[in-house]
DNA sequence: ACTTTGTAAACTAAAATAGTTTTCTCATTT
DNA sequence: AAATGAGAAAACTATTTTAGTTTACAAAGT
């Protein structure tokens, strides 16, 4: 039987609920009702498993994005839907997971070729380009830089070390932070759409 | 200077955000901007620190409860406010924290006298007694047993292993589960109040 | 100057956990 | 029915973490 997908999905849930380090291989195995050996049959080590999990998360997330993107009438609507989705994801994602991700990230050059990229909020420049085409974003913005910035804003908004959840509600931070940035790159038409959706969503 | 309270409060936040095991003493120290040594000056070991944290959580929680209790017109109103507060707390509380608490709990008889009690939802029989007095709860219920049961219902509602947050929204589970139990011990007057508040809260 | 209070960092000892190996069992195939 | 293979179960090792200690040192108060 091919356990690979089953393992990845369960590991994904456990990692993001409890954090990566908190989930031991024994724990994962017993949750799956299989033996630890079987996991190591499919994945060389925990690192490879993590890579598999992150890859799967990215793929799933990317699909959802595409769906939202294609089902929306305009970019602003798409972004609002996207923010909702992200809000959901981040609510399910334990701070421990984010902490562990940072730690893995900081272990510089663990193995060359290994990319430990943040699974969610992988915004892509397509959104920005479409926004410009639709006359919602200003024509004079640098697509590449803006794309990177929006990703950073999204990441930062959800960083518990920057906005401790005691003082802020994660969802609100994303909204205000991200939307304000959005306003900054919008045309008048874009601003109108933002205000419209913001009111409707509230 | 007396660091004790500062340490306890920071540890409390970190424990419930990242889980107990995920927070190392070094991490805690550097977060506080003090040396690890200083922590050990005040607390013999991590266990004693955890006890301190839990005690403080219980006290703070108990105070809030008393406040809610005294500021409410009737028991049902108090319980709805209480549920709101609990919802908040559980949202801030990482599943890792709950997992670690269970683990500590299972290490039977770690030290005689050590009580590792769950900090939140320490409902007390006062609420039930007041409910009976107000004619909201049936007179024939066993106060002690009901108290214990309500506590268990509250705990269970927030147990991620029972209700994985993928499938359920924690807040909704508490609401339906707890409220249904509540209905079971209520008189007609109680039922009316529950329906009233439930509608208003929605 | 000396004591206290705390920092910084190196250190040790103990615990936890990744990863391995062995043995056993059940099911499928030949 | 014997052989093969896939996986369970559990014991084991080796590595890594982390709790907790010790040491050397610095600033501040007396």
Number of E-type strands of chain A: 0
- Beta-strand percent range of chain A: under 5%
Q: For this entry, what is the oligomeric state of its chains? A: homodimer
**Distance between termini of chain A?**
48 Å
Q: How many helix segments of chain A? A: 10
Q: Which two chains share the most extensive interface? A: A-B, 15 and 15 residues
Q: Just name the CATH architecture of chain A.
A: Orthogonal Bundle
Helix content of chain A: 55-70%
Q: What Rg of chain A is obtained from the alpha carbons, in whole angstroms?
A: 19 Å
How many separate structural domains of chain A?
1
Could you describe the largest sheet of chain A, including whether it forms a barrel?
A: none
Classified by CATH, the class of chain A is Mainly Alpha
Unreliable stretches of chain A: none
The CATH topology of chain A is what? Tetracycline Repressor, domain 2
Structural class of chain A: mainly alpha
The CATH homologous superfamily name of chain A equals Tetracycline Repressor, domain 2
Following the backbone from N to C, one meets helices and strands of chain A in this order, namely HHHHHHHHHH
Q: Any idea what the shape of chain A is?
A: elongated
pLDDT average of chain A, as an integer? 85
